[in-house]
Amino acid sequence: MYEKIPTGNMTQEDWLQLRKTGIGGSDAGAVCGLHPYSNAMKVFRDKTGGEAEEVNNEAVRIGHDLEAYVAKRFVEATGLKVRCSNYMYRSKEYPFMIADVDRLVVGEDAGLECKTASAYSADKWSDGNIPLHYMMQCYHYMAVTGKRAWYIAAVILGREFTYRKLVWDEAVINNLIAIEEDFWHNYVLTGQIPPPDGSRACDEVIAQYFSKAKEKSAIELTGFDEKLGRRRDILQKIAELETEKKQIEQEVKLFMGEHELARSERYRVSWGNVDSTRLDTKRIREEKPEIYEDYATVSHSRRFEVKAA
């Protein structure tokens, strides 16, 4: 069972605030560690931050504007009818789970998720595949609404239209609910930041939380000697592998000589000419300091270094 919250006349700000009160479908893959550009730490930041942040980039704009087109293509391809819901759904059993669905399928216990994808990600949809974070989104919607199936349709820009059907999977949905419940109760409600996972998303969130160091402040480093030792070993291995990689490249370059291209049955190697122009900032600063000062910008960041004691 679920609660239906009308969104038809809701302002954008109110809708963004409503999204902060639970885990939505687009958050599910991130919380499960399956999203290529987000993760649990980023979702935690979104849910616990003071202001509701609106993602407003070109990809989001394209996806929003083409949602109706994707739904139309789905109707043409399947003969099914769909309708907008104009509601936010909240699970009564798991009130931390919310769902803002694209379409509901008329006459069938199912919904529809509409996606657009660039031609560069076409391989992720090949051979009947679905990107994993989109799969989790559909299962999340099934868990909230109780519907037994969910369609996902995608337009690969400039390439093709495709769609898939996911059906209720008890094991997957129960596991998803358990992961989301753990995340909500043990991190969001307690205010404890989820552990890092090595992703770029974690770097961005940590930089947002701790953007500036307190001058001359220090803390006793406890419990990290073994991990920092492992880091040292990893850096050494990376250096060894980088040297081996460079050696292979140098051998190929010697083989190619003045030739720009080389081919085999398995590989195509290019070693072409590249012309680049760079500003000599040191010279500008010395010879035209007034121009340098006018156009110079200062960026603030923190540098992480590890040295032997």
Write a short abstract of this structure:
The protein contains 11 helices and 10 strands. The protein has 309 residues and is of the alpha+beta class.
Verbal overview:
The protein is α+β, with helices and mostly antiparallel strands and 309 residues long. The protein folds into two domains: 2-209, Lambda Exonuclease, Chain A; 225-295, no CATH class. Helices cover 43% and strands 16% of the residues. It has eleven helices and ten strands. The protein has helices spanning 12-19, 25-31, 40-48, 58-65, 67-78, 132-145, 170-188, 200-209, 225-256, 281-287, 289-295, and strands at residues 2-6, 81-83, 87-91, 98-99, 103-106, 110-117, 149-156, 160-167, 261-263, 268-270. α2 (25-31) crosses α6 (132-145) and α6 crosses α7 (170-188). The mean pLDDT is 94.
Give the strand line-up of the largest sheet: 2-5-6-7-8
CATH C-level class of the largest domain is Alpha Beta
Count of strand segments: 10
Taking the sheet with the most strands, its summary is: 5 strands, mixed
Report the radius of gyration as a whole number of Å: 25 Å
Tell me the β content: 15-25%
SSE topology string: EHHHHHEEEEEHEEHHHEEHH
Mean pLDDT: 94
| Assigned CATH architecture of the largest domain | Alpha-Beta Complex
Low-confidence parts? none
The shape is: globular
**How would you classify the helix and strand content by structural class?**
alpha+beta
